[in-house]
Amino acid sequence: MKTTFRLIIAALATSLLVGCAGTNFKRPDPGVLEVGKSTVAQVNQVMGPAPQTGELMKNGEKLKSLRYVYAEGAGAGKYPGVVPARAMVYLTHNDLLVAEEFVSSFPNDATDFDDSKVSAIVKGKTTRSEVASLLGAPNGKGVYPFVKTKGDAAVIYSYAHAKGNAFNMKFYNKALVVSFDANGIVTDVEYISNGEK
Q1: How far apart are CA 124 and CA 141, in angstroms?
Q2: What is the pLDDT of residues 164-193, one digit of tens each?
Q3: Which of 20, 74, 144, 182 could form a disulfide with 150 if both were Cys (CB 3.0 to 4.6 A apart)?
């Protein structure tokens, strides 16, 4: 999870340093691309060629990343002083989409979530519907090898923002990945946060 989030922060940082950057993109409607089923060619067909690509290791497997990033240096973000930016990251393994994550600090589609509720998620007990009741709709999904166990599926809640200017940029990010077994029971909870709010 840390590696995935570093990809988003690096992409946002690069974009923010040059002010308005990247090509604005539309997040695909639910179901247009499906984790565990869609191919790299289908991602490219829906999103266009990825402006940024990379590789990372996750659970012993090499994943490829396709990143789409957009930032507005002069706009207003969800919170005072926040630079509005959004990123869409797709992770693939053997040409198959294994994770997708959308992050935004724009007011109209911000992905911030209430991390004070993370402690209410209990391995072996909490259900997928209970997680959705606690935190709302996720902004990402993943399957093995993005998650640790074959057969499990994960939901992702993540948020990132930047404040300041090119000479004094401060970043904040947080991410929660909750994995479920085939019965929809939580098998793993990973949470991370870094930086200044």
Answers
A1: 20
A2: 766 777 888 899 999 999 999 999 999 999
A3: 144
Q: What percent of the chain has pLDDT over 90?
A: 62
Residues 116, 63: Cα–Cα separation, whole Å? 31
Enter the pTM of the model. Answer: 0.88
Distance CA 164, CA 40 (A): 36
C-alpha torsion 5→7→8→12, nearest 10 = 140
**What b/e string do you get for 75-86 counting C-beta neighbours within 10 Å, with b at 16 or more?**
eebbeeebbbbb
Close Cβ partners of 124 (under 8 Å, ≥ 6 residues apart): 185, 186, 187
pLDDT tens, residue by residue, 149-161: 999 999 999 998 8
By the 8 A CB rule, do 33 and 46 touch?
yes
What the block records as the tokens of 3 is 């590696």
Residue 35 corresponds to which amino acid? V
